[in-house]
Design brief:
Layout (H helix, E strand, L loop, with lengths): L1 H53 L1 E14 L6 E11 L8 E6 L25 E6 L5 H9 L5 E5 L21 E5 L1 H12 L4 E14 L3 H52 L2 E4 L26 E4 L5 E3 H11 L9 H5 L15 H5 L16 H4 L3 H6 L17 E2 L9 E2 L2
Parallel strand pairs: 3-4, 4-5, 5-6
Antiparallel strand pairs: 1-2, 1-7, 2-6, 3-7, 8-9, 9-10, 11-12
Helix pairs in contact: 1-4, 4-5
Length: 417
């Protein structure tokens, strides 16, 4: 009963230890993940903040108002929409004038410096209408500005989105109003001009917009930084798992060594069969400390180096698990001189008997219940190493016809006279 309770307690303690180890591992992983996430978030936020501040773009929309005479009804028509977008280096101000295209159809893109615009003689202000393509925005705007255009309208041609406009870059040309309009609006004005209809264009400032961009360099840098942090965290986690695995393997190996050493030690301990009339069968004799039951004839007992004896079936599993005496907690490995981390010795050290100390339990027997070689059941290795025998006390000196056994390096059979 006590042995089962002890095993259950050991099993419970082992399970509690495993649960604690699992909880510690989970807490370590959680803290690692949380710290990594917080560090990555702060780092990425700071990097993005720095780069987005440097990549801010301010741009303005433009209201485009076109006025012309309808050739069918001969009435004035006005169309106004916020479809334009000022160039990056354009003057941010209002402008107006007659819409004018390049004179020659071959020069409609205005990429040639000699491009001529068909400006009416009575027009004091005019606005150049040029399609996108074949050269830079700067060249188109420059060629129109050299001929005293009040403003330049470039309509977006060839874009996947017909209504898309962009902020045109035209460095060096900053003294003229330049806007981009969608392709449908530009073709509408061009169609009216091709029909020789005078179109007056009014450009006014629209909405101010502030757009933030993250440059490709910043994205790459932030991504690499995040990946490096994750690799470091993963490496630390792998190292932690490896260490835990090594510790678990080392603990298992140590348990196996201790188990092998305990088996070796148990094989060297004395075994005795209780016979009828032995002192152990008397009611006042101590019970087995493991099962709390008394000794009966034909019970096989194991005698430990500390002179305590127990049922063999009770104490052997205990010794395999604990390697100590259930009563006095003496370590049988140390008592027998067996190192737990090395091969067990074949012989008991010569000073073993002196290191054991005086007997604690005494067993006597008459000639008819005397311990004999057949009843002891000691294997040859035990007989050669001289495990201590239970000696008689002074009150039970050997009488005639009795046999006494004393502790020595081997068995001495002394027959009384």
């Amino acid at each position: 009963m006590q042995q089962q309770q002890q095993r259950q307690a050991d099993k419970l303690e082992s399970e509690q230890g495993e649960r604690k180890m699992a909880m510690s591992l989970i807490q370590a992983c959680r803290s690692l993940a949380l710290s990594t996430w917080l560090l990555s978030f702060c780092f990425v936020h700071l990097l993005c903040l720095d780069f987005t501040v440097a990549e801010k773009e301010e741009w303005y929309t433009a209201f485009v108002n076109i006025t012309y005479t309808d050739p069918l009804s001969h009435q004035w028509r006005t169309e106004k929409s916020e479809c334009g977008r000022y160039g990056e280096h354009s003057l941010k101000q209002d402008a107006w004038g007659l819409a004018v295209m390049p004179s020659s159809p071959q020069d409609r893109l205005a990429c040639d410096p000699a491009t001529k615009f068909s400006v009416p003689a009575n027009a004091s202000r005019w606005v150049a209408l040029i399609p996108k393509g074949n050269c830079t925005y700067r060249d188109k705007i420059k060629h129109a500005a050299l001929q005293n255009a009040s403003a330049v309208l470039i309509y977006n041609v060839g874009s996947s989105n017909a209504n898309e406009t962009i902020t045109m870059p035209h460095p060096g040309i900053e003294d003229i109003v330049a806007i981009m309009i969608p392709e449908p609006k530009g073709r509408e004005i061009a169609t009216l001009l091709e029909r020789n209809i005078n179109v007056t264009i009014y450009i006014t400032i629209g909405t101010r917009n502030l757009q933030k961009y993250v440059s490709r360099t910043s994205v790459v840098f932030v991504s690499i930084s995040f990946i490096v942090l994750m690799i470091i965290s993963l490496a630390w986690l792998v190292f932690y798992y490896i260490q835990r695995f090594r510790y678990a393997n080392a603990r298992d190996r140590n348990q196996r060594r201790l188990g092998d050493a305990a088996k070796k030690a148990i094989s060297k301990l004395q075994v005795r069969t209780i016979k009828k009339g032995d002192k152990e069968t008397e009611p006042e004799f101590d019970n087995c400390a493991v099962c709390i039951e008394g000794y009966k004839p034909n019970d096989v007992v194991r005698i430990l180096p500390c002179r305590h004896l127990f049922h063999k079936s009770c104490v052997d599993p205990w010794l395999l698990d604990h390697r100590t005496c259930p009563m006095c907690k003496m370590n049988i490995l140390k008592a027998l001189g067996i190192p737990p981390n090395a091969d067990c010795l074949d012989d008991i050290p010569p000073d073993f008997e002196g290191s054991v100390g005086p007997p604690t339990n005494q067993i006597t027997g008459a000639s008819d219940v005397t311990v004999n070689e057949s009843s002891v059941g000691i294997d040859p290795s035990v007989r050669t190493v001289g495990v201590l025998q239970v000696i008689q006390d002074a009150e039970s000196l050997p009488q005639v016809g009795e046999v006494s056994y004393t502790a020595s390096s081997c068995f001495h059979w002394n027959q009384g006279p």
